[in-house]
Specification:
heterodimer; A: mainly beta; 10 strands; globular; B: mainly beta
Chain lengths: 107, 124
């Protein structure tokens, strides 16, 4: 199975900050990678697909980059509603594995 | 508007079985691949399995953790599909989501339409 490792696992941050989350794959996944935002009690929300394409309806402060084995999710200016847990997921090979998650906490 | 609604969750004893349903509205389910993803309490997301569309004969894929115990099937007359879960153990306790993935040119790029989830608790 392809292992996805996110860093950091936890991030204490403030409104207005620029945030970058990294997702590293144990083997290449081309650009078959997506990012999700998860809030307690709610279904995950797709933010980025194909590594760098913003999902319709997702705020433009979210952006993704990378290919192969290293990917990043960037939030340009953190808003209060962005405090959540973020996951990457690869679609290159079954099983479609997720990263372990990155939780953004209010500093 | 496109919606997925899961049902059938509940409390079941270890070793027992449960059947989850996923009903679609706003689109024809048979034309789409459907995935299941679960999230155990306090844990991350785990992909469970996939049912391909009718054109691809509804073939399936499963995570190793559920293969041989879980089965995805379709009911075109009800525009729905089911996740039959057998030999359940405490590690299967989770919220289960059915999802319509975003696909283009024969590849999956993300999971963009999620149901609200249904909770399965395996406990004695």
């Amino acid at each position: 199975d392809i292992r996805l490792t996110q860093s950091p696992s936890f991030l204490s941050t403030s409104v207005g900050d620029r945030v970058t989350i990294t997702c590293r794959a144990s083997q290449g996944v081309s650009n078959y990678l997506a990012w999700y935002q998860v809030k307690p009690g709610k279904a995950p929300k797709l933010l980025i697909y194909a590594a760098s394409t913003l999902q319709s309806g997702a705020p433009s402060r979210f952006s993704g980059s990378g290919s192969g084995t290293e990917f990043t999710l960037t939030i340009s200016t953190l808003q209060a509603e962005d405090f959540a847990t973020y996951y990457c997921q690869q679609f290159n090979t079954f099983p479609f594995t997720f990263g372990q998650g990155t939780k953004l906490e209010i500093k | 508007e496109v919606h997925l609604v899961e049902s059938g969750g509940g409390l079941v004893q270890p070793g027992g079985s449960l059947r989850l349903s996923c009903a679609a509205s706003g689109f024809t389910l048979s034309d789409h691949y459907i995935d299941w993803v679960r999230q155990a309490p306090g844990k991350g997301l785990e992909w469970v399995g996939r049912s391909r569309d009718k054109v691809n004969s509804y073939t399936t894929e499963y995570a190793a953790s559920v293969k041989g115990r879980f089965t995805i099937s379709r009911d075109d007359s009800k525009n729905s599909l089911c996740l039959q879960m057998n030999s359940l153990n405490t590690e299967d306790t989770a919220v289960y989501y059915c999802i319509r993935p975003a696909r283009k040119s024969g590849r999956t790029y993300g999971m963009d339409v999620w149901g609200q989830g249904t909770t399965v608790t395996v406990s004695s």
